[in-house]
Design a protein that fits this description.
Length: 79
Amino acid sequence: MKIRLVLAIAALWANGALAFNPADVEKLRNTGSCPKCDLSQFQFPDKARLESANLTGANLTGANLGGAKLENATGLKRF
């Protein structure tokens, strides 16, 4: 099942339907760090645990971080 999901995401990304890089999303999930990653347009789930994540230089254009926990995360522009 997981392989099918990864393949479906990869197919959508290759066809331009997704802006983010699925490999970068997986890297962030596995390591809690993803500097210079393409996470643009990614819809982070509510309460995504990104505490202390290194997102320095990451492309977050259009990403939905509304419900994410971002305490001590680095590389985020504060408004």
